Amino acid sequence: MTQLTxxxxxxxxxxxxxxxxxxxxxxxxxxxxxxRSVLFYGSCLRDVALDGAMLDFYLIVSDYRGAYPKRWxxxxxxxxxxxxxxxxxxxxxxxxxxxxxxDFARLCGPETLNVSVxxxxxxxxxxxxxxxxxxxxxxxxxxxxxxxxxxxxAGRREGEDPLDWWRRAFALTxxxxxxxxxxxxxxxxxxxDPDRYRRFGAAAAPLVAANAGKWPLRRVQGKALSVLRLAKxxxxxxxxxxxxxxxxxxxxGTDFQLxxxxxxxxxxxxxxxxxxxxxxxxxx
Length: 284
Fold this sequence. Notes:
By secondary structure, the protein is of the alpha+beta class. It has 2 domains: 3-217, Beta Polymerase, domain 2, CATH 3.30.460; 239-284, no CATH class. The protein contains 14 helices and 5 strands. The protein has a 5-stranded mixed beta sheet, with helices on both faces. The relative contact order is 0.12.
């Protein structure tokens, strides 16, 4: 077991708001025996008040066919992972993404060009539900791949401060997706817990593989995937257009209001917003 794995185990097991674990268990129950583990991540880890917030979870399943009653949902999850669903429990609102154990491990690793999963799990998360010890160990092993992948994709610079390495790495990943984040988000992520990033950086550095470069390709692929996932969400995510508007307004400090037709036709509505949002800088 590596030093990084020890840090991941410690971090994943840290306590969370007592309402989070029951919500995670309820999410797992939605997908029956296919459910393997649930990870809690995102800004709500740092926020004391969860009421009125949108909690973020990843549900890890054994396989997509077993996770869904409808074949098209399984096919959509396999073709363009993950599927994303809204969820409410005991007065709290959340969204959760679904990945298979195999896809979760792959998408946290350097063999994956797209930044979406490994960039998120190089940041803090919590393992708030697991079906058994095997599921727990599988989740730990996948998460432990994320930090070396992120740092490796950014590439080493001689004499660079470890925190600057993290800042630069996150800045690159934010540029590779359609993001409703203010500029400097990568810096603020690191500044939220610099000691954590120093410890994880020191443990991850010996495990970094040569994976630097490819950023023009990552940006093209990442933004194309963002649009495809948006299109898919119109079929799988009830109220998806309202969620997209809420997220943009929350992160970008804007006040976009949806028109009735955009709510009735969420895919067309979301796509119709893209040129305006790009011009305004609300998403990049």
